[in-house]
């Protein structure tokens, strides 16, 4: 399983999401690789992703994908991120 976190430059908010997604996976006892990327490289990085975590502003730029795109409103809200990861991957 693969989670990709997307932001404008690939280092700021996607880095925060990456760390918090990894914490969520640990909390849930799930295993997945988590990759932070910028919106410009989303096509190559996310082609085999199961889930993309991002802000609302980047959803349109991501375009068509087989991954489930989940908008995270607060990148620091561990509860929101854990719930999103659980909904997306917890049943697999």
From TrEMBL:
InterPro entries: PTS_EIIB-like_sf (IPR036095), PTS_EIIB_2 (IPR013011), PTS_EIIB_2/3 (IPR003501). Keywords: Transferase. GO terms for molecular function: protein-N(PI)-phosphohistidine-sugar phosphotransferase activity. The keyword Oxidoreductase does not apply. GO terms for biological process: phosphoenolpyruvate-dependent sugar phosphotransferase system. The keyword Mitochondrion does not apply. SUPFAM superfamilies: PTS system IIB component-like. Residues 1-92 form the PTS EIIB type-2 domain. This is PTS system ascorbate-specific IIB component.
């Amino acid at each position: 399983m693969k989670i990709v976190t997307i932001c404008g430059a690939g280092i700021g908010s996607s880095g925060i999401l990456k760390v918090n997604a990894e914490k969520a996976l640990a909390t849930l006892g799930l295993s997945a690789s988590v990759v932070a990327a910028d919106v410009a490289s989303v096509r190559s990085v996310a082609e085999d992703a199961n889930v993309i975590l991002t802000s609302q502003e980047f959803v349109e730029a991501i375009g068509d994908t087989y991954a489930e795109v989940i908008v995270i409103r607060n990148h620091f809200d561990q509860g929101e991120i854990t719930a999103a990861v659980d909904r997306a991957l917890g049943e697999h």
